């Protein structure tokens, strides 16, 4: 059951796909009050209530006990103290004494005080917002109804479920070949090599540096032949440079964000002074999307959209002011406060609220300040690309994922969780983020495995990969200034080969479960208590997840740990695997266990009454042999399992492409 309640005059976000009439009467369950132009929605939590959701956010699976702000933010220092990340996913599920879901659909800022100010109070602050209240029998059914409201999740091509290697700093064809050969020589599987901003000419979108990549189409074709796809990055901003066609077209068509008077609003990012395409305007969005053609024509079939919060390093006007200010104190004896003011003048330039207020979009013929619609930018950049792909090659699936997002973007692409750190705490965060993102429709997601910033270590990399083999987007990515972390640079190569190989063994299962979850608006990663609803202990489990219908995982997320404590909410079969071979399985009763987990093995749990198909480890998705599956079973009667065996590229064939297997005990 869905109720819809309107407060103020919200901008259309296009988050929902099903028309929904406004409900009569007041919003149930919440106390609603107005304060300084905002609307406050308050709900008193019972002592044992949990609050789930919020998609890509900081902290645990249960969001209770912290303050969360939906205001898309590019900040690579993801400390526990943060309140915003790159996405705004305003759906929460209160579970406990009463169970219900609420979606706050607004393009602007929303604050979720989930027992932060007062441990028993949930207070959501927004303005100009449509509130959808969803009531069903269970958490899973609430999520299902919500997902029906927001529409079907994006499904990438099958090769995108392989493993991808990335690092900021692969600057030319030689570097890319070196990565390919690193995997090839070490007999490690690989499906994608990512290209970061260095492939471009002077950081210009849709350009290729000819010296570094003399023949990108040839390179792409050659690697594809070997089963490896090149996946370039696309940044939001367009360099201002006379003669650069993309810029010239942008200017001529008026496809840019403006100031309040309608003049182009210059911002500076990687390419220096740039314009932001006004992706909130349908014509501009279409134009921006059509630019991907340049790379599509070169044989590129996958993209990652970056810097689309949008990130702004500075704007020339404000930079000039800052420089003037700094110059004005030259020669003065600065005390700490005065010195901090000087520092602040410069460090406050990026992503500044003033620039967001100054930037304007065209919406319905009117000029609207960016600050009111901030959270929709990355969403619409990705939407533009996806809508264009559908024109370019109808029915073909492309790989596309974005850094910034809002609910609705889940129909057009996946997301990655941005610039995490090579910290054990971020491996744990990665685990906790998965179900929240699933609830909000973002099924094709993953983190930078091994960590993006700071130096990783071999054990962290292995543990992270052992979790990452379960995440739909499986990519090892890092920033340029950290030590190398390609899988083949480490000492224990067998361990890496084993774990990467396991991804491919599990692919028939993971892919089938993913496609089914997407087609049926279901979750792929579930908190334990969503299935074991009567189990009080399950409600407190923050570092174990159900993956699809058959499996439970309990990743090791601590340095030097040789195993971990695991809670089994029911009888399960413990499976230990190495390189696609199961070498031990044992049935454990419901309860708490200490489970040893070696660095080079993958351990998971098969639920009772379920089966798991396995393939042999493969070099890449293209060469995966799904004609010869083996099965792990924990059944006492005949059971069926449907494996998705589509061509891996087309969209319309998916529903009819499941192959049914009948398994005997
Ligand atoms: O300002 O393109 O999150 O994955 O490597 C940094 C360089 C810009 C941020 C992305 C990261 C990428 C990096 N980008």
Could you explain the architecture of this structure?
- This protein is of the alpha+beta class.
- Helix content is 25%, strand content 26%.
- The strands form ten sheets. The chain has a nine-stranded parallel β-sheet with strand order 24-23-21-18-14-13-12-26-25. Strands 27-28-29-34-31-32 form a six-stranded antiparallel β-sheet. Strands 1-11-8-7-4 form a five-stranded antiparallel β-sheet.
- Helix 5 crosses helix 11.
- The structure holds ligand MIG.
- Ligand MIG binds at residues 168, 196-197, 233, 306-307, 403, 418-419, 477, 479.
- Give a quick account of the main beta sheet: strands, pairing sense, barrel closure: 9 strands, parallel
Terminal-residue CA separation: 40 Å
**Count of β-strands:** 38
Number of helices: 15
Percentage of residues in strands = 25-35%
What is the CATH architecture descriptor of the domain at 509-663?
Sandwich
Q: Regions with pLDDT < 50 over 5+ consecutive residues? A: none
Adjacency order of strands in the biggest sheet:
24-23-21-18-14-13-12-26-25
Based on secondary structure, the structural category is alpha+beta
What is the name of the CATH class of the domain at 509-663? Mainly Beta
The outline comes out as: globular
What is the percent of helical residues?
A: 10-25%
Q: Ions, cofactors, ligands: which are bound?
A: ligand MIG
Mean pLDDT: 97
- Taking all Cα atoms into account, the compactness measure Rg is 25 Å
CATH fold group of the domain at 509-663:
Immunoglobulin-like
């Amino acid at each position: 059951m869905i109720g819809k309640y309107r407060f103020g005059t919200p901008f259309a976000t296009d988050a929902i796909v099903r028309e929904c009439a406004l409900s009569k009467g007041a919003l149930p369950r919440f106390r609603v009050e107005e304060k300084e132009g905002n609307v406050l929605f308050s709900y008193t939590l019972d002592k044992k209530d949990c609050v789930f959701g919020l998609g890509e956010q900081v902290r645990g699976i249960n969001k209770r006990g912290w303050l969360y702000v939906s205001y898309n933010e590019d900040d690579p220092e993801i400390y526990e103290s943060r309140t915003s990340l790159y996405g705004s996913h305003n759906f929460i599920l209160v579970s406990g004494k009463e169970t219900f879901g609420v979606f706050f659909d607004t393009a602007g800022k929303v604050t979720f005080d989930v027992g932060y100010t007062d441990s028993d109070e949930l207070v959501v602050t927004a303005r100009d917002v449509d509130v959808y209240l969803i009531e069903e029998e269970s958490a899973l059914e609430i999520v299902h109804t919500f997902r029906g409201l927001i529409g079907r999740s994006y499904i990438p091509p099958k090769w995108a479920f392989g493993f991808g290697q990335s690092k900021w700093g692969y600057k030319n064809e030689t570097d890319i070949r070196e990565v390919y050969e690193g995997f090839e020589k070490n007999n490690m599987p690989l499906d994608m090599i990512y290209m970061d901003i260095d492939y471009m000419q002077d950081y210009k979108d849709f350009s290729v540096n000819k010296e570094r990549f003399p023949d990108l189409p040839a390179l792409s074709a050659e690697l594809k032949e070997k089963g490896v796809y090149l996946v370039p990055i696309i940044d939001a901003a367009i360099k201002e440079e006379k003669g650069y066609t993309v810029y010239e077209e942008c200017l001529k068509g008026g496809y840019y964000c403006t100031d309040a008077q309608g003049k182009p609003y210059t911002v500076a990012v990687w390419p220096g002074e740039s314009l932001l395409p006004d992706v909130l305007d349908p014509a501009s969005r279409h134009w921006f999307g059509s630019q991907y053609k340049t790379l599509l024509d070169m044989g590129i079939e996958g993209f990652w959209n970056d810097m689309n919060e949008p990130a702004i390093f500075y704007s020339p006007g404000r930079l000039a002011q800052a420089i003037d200010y700094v110059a004005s104190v030259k020669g003065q004896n600065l005390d700490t406060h005065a010195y901090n003011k000087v520092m602040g003048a410069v460090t406050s330039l990026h992503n500044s609220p003033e620039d967001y207020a100054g930037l304007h979009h065209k919406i319905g013929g009117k000029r609207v300040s960016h600050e009111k619609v901030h959270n929709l930018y990355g969403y619409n950049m990705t939407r533009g690309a996806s809508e264009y792909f559908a024109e370019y090659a109808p029915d073909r699936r492309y790989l596309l994922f974005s850094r910034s997002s809002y609910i609705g973007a889940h129909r057009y692409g996946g997301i990655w969780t941005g610039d995490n750190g090579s910290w054990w705490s971020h491996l744990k965060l990665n685990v906790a983020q998965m179900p929240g993102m699933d609830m909000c429709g973002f099924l094709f997601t993953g983190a930078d495995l091994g960590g993006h910033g700071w130096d990783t270590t071999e054990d962290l990399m292995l543990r992270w990969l052992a979790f990452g083999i379960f995440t739909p987007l499986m990519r090892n990515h890092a920033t340029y200034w950290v030590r190398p972390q390609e899988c083949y640079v480490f000492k224990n190569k067998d361990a890496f080969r084993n774990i990467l190989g396991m991804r491919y063994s599990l692919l028939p299962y993971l892919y089938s479960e993913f496609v089914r979850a997407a087609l049926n608006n279901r979750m792929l990663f579930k908190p334990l208590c969503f299935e074991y609803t009567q189990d009080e202990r399950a409600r407190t489990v923050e570092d174990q997840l159900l993956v699809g219908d058959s499996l439970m995982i309990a990743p090791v997320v601590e340095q030097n740990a040789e195993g971990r404590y695991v809670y089994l909410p029911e009888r399960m079969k413990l499976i230990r695997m190495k390189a696609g071979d199961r070498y031990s399985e044992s049935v454990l009763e419901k309860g708490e266990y200490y489970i040893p987990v070696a660095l080079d093995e993958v351990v998971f749990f098969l639920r009772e009454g379920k089966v798991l198909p396995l393939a042999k480890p493969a070099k890449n998705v293209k060469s995966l042999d799904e004609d010869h599956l083996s099965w792990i079973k924990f059944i006492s009667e005949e059971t069926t399992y449907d494996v998705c065996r589509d061509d891996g590229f087309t969209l319309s064939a998916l529903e009819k492409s499941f192959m049914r297997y009948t398994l005997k005990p």
